[in-house]
Design brief:
It is built from five helices and six strands. The protein is mainly α and 298 residues long.
Length: 298
């Protein structure tokens, strides 16, 4: 690739000089392909930002970013574990990311001529010589570690507050849900009670209608029963008369028949049947006389 070839041309041992090249962005991928370039000079360019993947340059030891237009550093700056020397002179940086505290190998730092926030400016100092820049690196790392800790505490505090607020919201929601459930339960009970009352009213009306219908049926049955009794009495009277007539007729026949046979056989005594009959009559006559004599009847 042409860019890679150009970078190789500028590589002098471990040093890669890309200063004063009017660069507006850092060719991170191409630099990562040159692990020998542990000292990189990007000073005096037009860099306004650094890409977050600057952490891919984990092999670099010294990085010069002085005299650019940088307004800040990305969080990825903390992923340079071997970085010992960092020059940020003459930029527009006001503060540093908390990930800066991860640069444990940092021994030299220059941040002069930056519009730093007051607390960070007091920590940075003047950086007028090599010794002061070393002190600056130590103090800034300590400051950023404390800031990271404080930031983490603040974040934890905010999370705790959010958690407590969420718990309070959940509690209120739970209470409201319970209230709604109780309200629905009460409504259901009222609806059930209304249905029960309606059912009882309907049952009462039904039983009343049944009682009225039964009374009407009883009246009709009583009327019809009285009519049937009259008819039965008439039929009974008629049937009684008929029975007596038949009984009298039978008695008459029972009496008239022997009398008729007696008179018939009296005039036809020579007939064998009449002789038998007359014999029965004589025996009956003798029996009657015997009974009357025993009873003292003359």
């Amino acid at each position: 690739m042409p860019v890679k070839d150009n970078l190789k041309d500028k590589l002098d041992g471990e040093e890669l000089d890309l200063s004063m090249g009017n660069l507006t962005k850092v060719p991170v991928k191409e630099l990562a392909a040159l692990p020998k370039a542990t000292v990189i000079d990007l000073s005096c360019n037009q860099l306004q930002t650094l890409p977050d993947n600057i952490g891919l340059l984990s092999h670099i030891i010294k990085l010069d970013l002085s005299k650019n237009q940088l307004t800040g550093l990305p969080n990825g700056i903390g992923n340079l574990p071997k970085l010992q020397h960092l020059d940020l002179l003459g930029n527009k940086i006001r503060t540093l990311p908390t990930s800066f505290a991860q640069l444990k190998a940092l021994r030299w730092l220059d941040m002069k001529e930056n519009p730093l926030e007051e607390s960070l400016r007091r920590v940075v100092g003047d950086c007028l010589n090599d010794k002061e820049c070393k002190i600056c690196a130590t103090r800034v790392l300590a400051y950023m570690k404390n800031k990271k800790t404080e930031t983490e505490k603040e974040r934890q505090k905010e999370l705790q507050m959010l958690k407590e607020q969420q718990a309070k919201t959940d509690k209120l929601k739970k209470k409201e849900d319970e209230k709604q459930r109780e309200l629905k339960k009460k409504q259901k009970m009222e609806e059930k009670e209304m249905r029960r009352r309606l059912y009882e009213e309907q049952e009462a009306e039904r039983r009343l209608e049944e009682m009225q219908a039964d009374e009407e049926n009883d009246e009709d049955t009583s009327y019809e029963g009285n009519g049937d009794t009259s008819i039965d009495n008439k039929q009974y009277t008629k049937s009684g008369v008929s029975c007596w007539s038949i009984l009298v007729s039978i008695i008459f026949l029972l009496v008239a028949m022997p009398i008729g046979i007696f008179f018939y056989c009296d005039s036809h005594s020579n007939l064998s049947d009449c002789r038998v009959f007359n014999g029965y009559v004589d025996q009956l006559h003798k029996y009657i006389q015997k009974v009357t004599k025993q009873a003292g009847i003359s």
